[in-house]
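Supplementary Note 3. Input sequence used for the single-chain structure prediction.
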Amino acid sequence: MPDRFLLAGVMGFPVMHSRSPKLHNFWLEKHGLNGRYVPLAIRPDGLEAALRALPALGFAGCNLTIPHKETAMRLVDSTDAASKRIGAINCVTVAKDGSLAGSNNDGFGYIQSILQARPDWRADAGPIVVMGAGGGARAVLVALADRGAREIRLLNRTDTRASLLAEDLGAPITAVPWSDRSKALDGAAMLVNTTSQGMVGQPALDIELESLPRGALVSDIVYIPKVTPLLAVAKARGNPTVGGLGMLINQARPAFKGWFGIMPEVTPDLVAMMEATL
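The predicted structure, written as discrete structure tokens, is reproduced below.
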């Protein structure tokens, strides 16, 4: 695309903490594309105007982060099947006619991050315990179910939220009371934290791992810090672990392809660059 400067960005509020600009700008440079990916601090009351301005400003599209993922879904012209099930979008692509297409790549990013770290992983290997009932949980739950998970035990500190989410998404997801969280780990093949617990500035996830089999995979979608308290405890007892950085990187790949026509790869130099920012 030699005739124009390529543009994309991430809309959020706040947004300057986002690592997405470093990620996408790395790929733009690596593939010799003349363009830039920028942070866009958009307040909630300015989201619709900002989205509608994308075509006129020459943007190929944008990512969406807190607090815009759910609201933006109602503002774009079309959404894909996955985002409809999840109930939120994290990516907008500007079509040739100027219309806005919404998609959600978080589930793709999550599954790819697990497979890259554990190529022999299978969603149907045994019960999966998922902690949390927010937007991250919805994306992970849909992805695990689509991947063939046979039993997913969902827990949230507010039991009602877990129950409503399990009812909304249906089988194979079953809500388990927060008070039974230790018991829920019995016989599990995988534990996933989709909450913000364990993130820098947040308390650790309130769960003991004694009941979790030592062969169970422990996954955390938090990526700052690289090793959360949950992952540190799991590693110490011998469980295999996967952190959240891989999800961040992999969810960006289909977005980049949709905007610029290239599916970027996850390379050691990219991972090292991203880890250095944490």
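The longest strand covers residues 6-12. The mean pLDDT is 96.
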